Amino acid sequence: MFKRILLANRGEIALRVQRTCRELGIETVAVYSEPDRHQLHVRDADLAVPIGPGPSSESYLVIDKIIDAARRTGAEAIHPGYGFLSENPRFADACETAGIAFIGPPAAAMRALGDKVSARKLMEQAGVPVVPGANDIDPSDLARARAEAERIGFPLLVKAAAGGGGRGIRVVERLDDLEAAMRASGAEAASSFGDATIFLERYIQRSRHVEVQIMADAHGEVRAYGERECSVQRRHQKLTEEAPSVAVDAALRRRMCDAAIAAARSCGYRNAGTVEFLLDDRGEFYFLEVNARLQVEHPVTELVYGVDLVRQQLLVAAGEPLPPHTRPLEPYGWAIEARINGEDPYQNFMPSVGLVTQVEAPLGPGTRFDTMLCDGLDVPVFYDSLLGKLIVWAETRELALRRMRRALLDLVIAGVETNIPFHLALLDHPDYVSGAVDTGWLEREFAMPDAGAGDPRAETALIAAALAASMTSAAANGATPAASTNEWVRTNRLRALEQRAGAGGGRGWRRGTGS
Amino acid sequence: MATRHRLVITGEEHSVVFDDAAGTVAIDDGEPLGLDAAGAVPGVFTLLIEGRPRRAYVSRRGNGFEVIVEGRRFLVGPAAAGGRARAGLGGKDRPGEVTAPLAGVVIEVRVAVGDHVEAGQALLVIEAMKMQNELQAPVAGTVTATHCQAGGRVEQGALVLEYEPDAG
User: Global pTM?
Assistant: First the structure.
């Protein structure tokens, strides 16, 4: 096993990987941009290396800086987390050239899967179901496109072969619209990706996004840890995930896992990966793509399968075989994750950054909070809005939903807006509670409750604020020499002093003075 | 002694009256509710309202307060008299001023002093957390000053642009 690894990431995922390393006695090297100097993963690292200013294009995305940091600190391996360089085959190549183990799949597998059309062909050969469609269409070859479109049926999607992030995608409802869509998609693909090649795919409406966690070692073992249900999405961003899925029974799970294992074998995959599928309302599933990395939502799988996926990643990257599993690979209980984002659900999910003045994490049975938050953290503007992930486990889905509500109510984040009210409102929606969702459901059916009148929480907030106002004015009107130093300022100073002295064992003082 | 407070929450103004002798609180002169706020200090309040415990996390924000109750964060500001209502405290910008609705990095300033803009026209783009947000002109007018530049950081509520609204 490695003695020292570098974490080429930040935020909650750097902390997540680091925790497993610390448990296993592996030293960690943190890299950080200037605004991340005081992040928890830097604090808890054995070594820390600055890699430049805030924008990720000048820090976390600069391959040379990361490799250089690993070399200088003697790190034997690099964990890329998710995002940033995690699915960049050039980064995997650079690690190999530098003699550093990349904790992820081989660059060749990433390349084979990174191109949507080559991935499609690979899956067709491996017998993995793909959405009916037609590959490699020249946007000017209308005759072939028409013939293929009639075979596939409408509505269908025109997609850029080299695309990503939803660019170059057009929905075509009927044959007459095909030519215009091909031209637009081809032009967009040519300008965005330098390749005008397109492909056609049947448009499967009202489908679920269900994905299978795979883990493969260098000794021929490929394992599937069941599915995750990720259909609740806004603008293609997942907001909550669960394992297992209400739409998957044991027989379907077996078929999906077998398909995912075949997908992994088709490209010589190693380490952790996720095979994404569309699941339609008749229980048919189709290959979508492979996410060649650890996913944000991996904890729900960890909880229902009783595994530490990061530990397995480290073992595999060190060339060791996957540990044998001690019980059948079936999910036990139910796990749900809520992504806690810095955004205001009452203002169209507008991002919110700033100084986090107070954090209280929920505790209690079956409750896990993976977060980068701590009191006094200034959330930088440069990175994504994920502040943390609240994950609960319970014996059944119904109990897990109840536990999620309880945990959300116990989670306090002061200083920035969060989407906690969104998650609470979601738990009130009968479709979500019954699991009757698809990838379009949230945007089609869900609306936040009215922000104004009628929220009983506002009454409590109003009374508390009025009470605070009367305390403030009482302090300001006092005739003491410190009259201008109001209660708030003094309390904050006291707090700062106590924190500096490390007195009172952390957070207890707040409650202690109020009792 | 009864004390009255006028506060704005979620864009609406309300009155809160404490009657210390009776140990009650009344909102908008409604029915008094029994209130036990014993030992409340800034930070976490555990209030007993009609005997029911209610937890509120309170901290200063500008000239108002941030209050978190059961997962929801409220910004409670003083009522309109005096003090300018800022974006983020439920208020709108004053005529002639545009403030940043969120903290972020200015990606682009699309107008210059002297430009005439139509209502809804994009003035500048602020990026936060990899999302770009366009600030639009609330009404037609002429730009008289800009207080930010591309690449610079702005805080929430900061004055970023001034304009002279068109007459009429």
Answer: 0.83
